[in-house]
Structures are given as C-alpha cells and as structure tokens.
C-alpha cells in the first residue's frame, strides 16, 4: 500500500517537473504553416555575427552552424543559436538524425542574475499521423538544473553561453524550445525555439 507521504511526493513531482511552463500550454499554440513556430513568437531572427571572448562569430565551424530562431517572452535576449554537427548552410534548418549526438550552443544576455536557474526544454511535434495536431512534451533526458549547461551564478547584463549536449531520440519532433528561468517560478532569463528536421535512420 502506498503511503500518503509517497502519494503527495509523486503528485508534487509531476506538477513541478512534468508540466510545461505556463506560456507553452496548448492554448497558445498555433497551426504550423510554412515551417513556422508552433506558438506566436515575439520575433524571428537569425544568429548574429556578434563577437565575444576569443573572437567568436556565427561562422565558426567549431561551434557548428547558426540556425534561425524565434524568441518568446523573457527578460533577456538571445544573440545566436548554433548546432553542431549541421550540414545545412548557415541560416537554414538543420537535419537531426535519430540516435546521434548533437550540441546546441546558445549565446544570451539576461537582464537579471540567477544563482539557481531552471532548465526547460520542450519538444513540439506536428506529425499528422499522431492524429492530435500539435503536441508538446518535456524532452526526455534533460536536467532541470541549468547550471549543468551554463556557468553559475548567471550574471545580469553580460553575455553568457548555454551548451546542451544530447543524443537524439527516435521520437517525433520538429521544433525545440529552450526556456531558462530563475528558479521554478521566476522570470525567464531567455526563451528561444527553432525548427529542426528529424531523420529516422
């Protein structure tokens, strides 16, 4: 028999760790047309050539290829998103192959500092074969501790680097959304998403 303490612990964990952030709920999603984002973005842009420490630019092959991205409600800004490996030309949608390793590097400037940032990676799928329209779910395998992907504490008004290394799953996904918040209910430090093409080998 499950104790009442265990029941509420499981219930609380599901509410905190499994639910997407409020502005990513299904009521905010829009039908996908012409490879647009599954939500209403605040802006769409391409990665810039903004230089940082070490003379980095979006053309650097060591960081992969830059990809166009959308931004959503956040206190900070995103300068660029790079994907490695990516065989597509800079500014075009990258192909992901299931079961392979990829690195996503995001350069961002938050307007608020955080010593306990929370990582939220949400995957979207518009695969019509699912019969459910657009669906979203927390991407499996991620840590909710954003300090595993960026240096902590995160300073305000300074360019920071977020690096997410992972192996793609054999699941339907054609859009990835990254949202880093100050704790569970704090302000979003940055929020951005981009289209991908998943090839199931």
TrEMBL record:
Residues 53-66 have a biased composition (Low complexity). Residues 69-196 form the MD-2-related lipid-recognition domain. Keywords: Signal. The keyword 4Fe-4S does not apply. Residues 35-66 are annotated as: Disordered. Pfam families: E1_DerP2_DerF2 (PF02221). Residues 1-18 form the signal peptide. Residues 35-49 have a biased composition (Polar residues). SMART domains: ML (SM00737). This is Phosphatidylglycerol/phosphatidylinositol transfer protein. It comes from Tremella mesenterica.
């Amino acid at each position: 028999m499950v104790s009442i303490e265990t029941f509420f612990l499981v219930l609380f964990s599901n509410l905190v760790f499994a639910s997407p952030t409020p502005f990513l709920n299904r009521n905010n999603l829009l039908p996908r047309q012409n490879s647009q984002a599954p939500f209403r973005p605040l802006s769409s842009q391409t990665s810039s050539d903004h230089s940082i420490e070490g003379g980095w630019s979006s053309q650097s092959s060591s960081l992969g290829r830059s990809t166009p991205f959308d931004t959503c409600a956040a206190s900070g800004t995103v300068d660029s998103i790079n994907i490695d490996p990516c065989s597509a030309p800079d500014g075009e949608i990258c192909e992901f192959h299931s079961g392979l390793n990829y690195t996503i590097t995001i350069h961002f400037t938050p307007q608020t500092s955080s010593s306990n940032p929370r990582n939220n990676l949400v995957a979207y799928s518009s695969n019509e074969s699912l019969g459910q329209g657009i669906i979203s779910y927390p991407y499996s395998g991620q840590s909710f501790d954003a300090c595993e992907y960026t240096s902590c504490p995160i300073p305000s008004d300074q360019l920071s680097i977020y690096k997410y290394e992972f192996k793609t799953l054999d699941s339907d996904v054609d859009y990835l959304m990254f949202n880093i918040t100050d704790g569970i209910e704090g302000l979003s430090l940055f929020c951005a998403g981009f289209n991908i093409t998943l090839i199931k080998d």
